[in-house]
Amino acid sequence: MSEASELPPGPEPPPESEYAYGERRTPTAAQVAAFEPGRGRISGYLSATLGVMSLLGVLCFLYPTLFTTAELREAYEVGQIRFLLRITLIGSVAFGLFNMARLQNARLGAVGLLCAGAAFLLGGWQAEVGTLDPTKVGLGLDWLLLDLLASAGLFIFLEKLFPRYPDQAILRPELSLDVVYFGMNHLALGFLLIASNGFAPAAVDWAVNAELQAFVTGLPIWGQVILLVFAADLVQYWIHRAYHEVPWLWGLHAVHHSTEHMDWIAGSRTHILQTLFDRTLVFLPLYLLGPSKEALDVYVVYAALLAVFIHSNVGLPMGPLKWIITTPQFHHWHHSSDQPAIDTNYAAYLPLYDWLFGTFHMPDAHWPIKYGTLTRLPRTFWGQFAYPFQRDRGRGDADAGTPEEASAGS
Ligand SMILES: [Zn+2]
Ligand SMILES: [Zn+2]
Q1: How far apart are CA 280 and CA 371, in angstroms?
Q2: Which range marks the domain in which residue 121 is found?
Q3: Cα→Cα distances 108→9, 185, 382, Å
Q4: What gap in Å lies between CA 201 and CA 190, rounded to an integer?
Q5: What would the mean pLDDT of 340-357 be, rounded to a whole number?
Q6: What is the tens place of the pLDDT at every residue in 107-154?
Q7: What pLDDT sits at residue 7?
Q8: Which of 92, 187, 206, 349 could make an S-S bridge to 50, C-beta 3.0–4.6 Å?
Q9: What is the widest separation between alpha-carbon atoms in the chain?
């Protein structure tokens, strides 16, 4: 804010301490109207989403070696998955027919019906399970589908029960872009697992300390999980801070900040390269600590749920917990383009690290007014993929100046 005196004449931004926090901008009338019931978009999106998921689900049945995950295959029963597939297929057809009958936005319904038809031709929910080679690592398409269903089911329910922004529709602007990110990042991780199978542990084995690992596995499971949370988040804090403070890295990370609507799937918007960097780097402390499989499983589920939760449109009062674990309010501030919040709240699990390193921002019960980057990014997946490599891109956050300057340039 010290550059305020160098600004061209115009309204000066308020001093940080007097910053006027308030309510968020509401969606435009056109955005609201596009998703009003009766226009066929809701049934169309449901039909297309369920249809594509059903088709991919049938492919998991037919080609389990290529598409499924060994750990997940142990956790679920084929009968349960067939039942789920039956529901998604029937849902896709029902919503598709309803959508086509209304003759509005019927293309989405047609996509849903075509995918459902293809899934039926390949055997539907009675598709035979193909031959399985348990020694090979699959792409994790089953993980993608089950994660999408479970995250959507749980968090859309919470968003409807305790909405932070009740005026934000589930089918909000750029939802389809974030669904693409959800799919692409899951697949990229699947490729990473295949590519790194057996390689990464060998590369870092020199750093393994048997005494440390024996100490860790000697702890009770809850103790191991707490240790993993502290260790992983210390690494994540500094990686995240580097993304904000090193200019080229910011170009990569700006993609994550380009979302202007926070909800259960907004956090999926991450550049594929960042996803690959993050997973590789966070793997290191987890691997070196060598926890038990049970502790690692609890940690992975906790981390996955928290990552969705902190981006969600959930305004559930958290009480004193909000000082101990990261919450939607904490991470929403991280995504805000309101000036005092820029480059704050880097922790993924523990606000303690931001407090210790001087980047904590939690102004009472206030929530942000605006989300997104100050310099607006391209609005397509491939446009954003190329963004970090563009020479003439702006810095797009705090260093771009005040909100007034940025909005003038965006
Ligand atoms: Zn960030
Ligand atoms: Zn985020």
Answers
A1: 28
A2: 29-134
A3: 50, 24, 22
A4: 17
A5: 95
A6: 889 999 999 999 999 999 988 888 888 777 788 888 889 989 999 999
A7: 42
A8: 92
A9: 72
Lowest-pLDDT range of 65-79, 178-192, 374-388: 65-79
In a domain, 181, yes or no: no
Q: Say if 377 falls within a structural domain.
A: yes
Per-chain residues with Cβ under 5 A from ion ligand 2: 267
Q: Is residue 164 part of a domain?
A: no
Residue 44 CA to ligand 1 centre (angstroms): 33
Q: Are residues 234 and 371 in the same domain?
A: yes
Query: Ligand 1 centre and the CA of 205: distance in Å?
Result: 31
In this structure, which ligand is nearest to the CA of 337?
A: 1
Distances (CA, A) of 365 to 23, 263, 307, 324, 405: 12, 19, 21, 16, 28
Range with lowest mean pLDDT among 68-72, 96-100, 310-314, 342-346: 68-72
Residue type, 269: R
Q: How far is the CA of 351 from the centre of ligand 2 (A)?
A: 14
Ligand 2 center to residue 266 CA distance, Å?
8
Q: Which of residues 72 and 177 earns the better pLDDT score?
A: 177
- Distance between Cα 335 and ligand 2 center (Å): 6
Find the length of the chain. 410
Structural domain count, the chain: 2
